[in-house]
Design a protein that fits this description.
4 helices, Thiol Ester Dehydrase, Chain A, two-stranded antiparallel ribbon, alpha+beta, 147 residues
Length: 147
């Protein structure tokens, strides 16, 4: 059974390179039509170093780094008993193609509701770029249904 002792647990650091093709595919998948996200020349004209990542792309970075299910696997939680409760992003600078981002996931909160029937696990990942500069803080809430 999960309890407050899981707060503070950290997972292995990871590094992911942001690729143009992956950014374009993501932009198309979310229905983005702004040429800044699809065309390198438009991105440069708008002042970006390369193709920029759409705002929620940081979640894809987490998944590409195999971080999405680390907590569930760590505690033997059946994925079928979980839902994606919430996600949030705080950006400090743009993510662009060619960036090499590093981060480390950690559990920052644990809560129970309805007498433990629902458990909420909150994780955070602080992403830094190849220059060691903060890029994005990603926050994720996983809801575990018990009983």
């Amino acid at each position: 059974m999960l309890d407050q002792s899981i707060v503070g647990r950290e997972y292995a650091p990871f590094t992911v390179e942001v690729e143009k093709g992956r950014l374009r595919a993501f932009a198309k998948a979310i229905g983005e039509t702004n040429p800044v996200y699809l065309d390198e020349a438009a991105a440069h004209d708008a002042g970006y170093r390369s193709l920029p990542a759409p705002p929620t792309y940081a979640f894809t970075i987490m998944m590409d780094a195999d971080q999405g299910f680390k907590v569930l696997e760590d505690f033997g939680i059946d994925k079928a008993r979980t839902v994606h409760g919430e996600q949030g992003f705080v950006y400090h600078r743009d993510i662009c193609a060619g960036d090499v981002l590093s981060g480390r996931q950690r559990i920052v909160e644990f809560a129970e509701k309805k007498g433990g029937a629902l458990q909420f696990i909150t994780t955070e990942i602080a992403l830094v770029n190849q220059d060691g500069l903060p890029v994005c803080e990603l926050r994720l809430v996983i809801v575990v249904r018990n009983g």
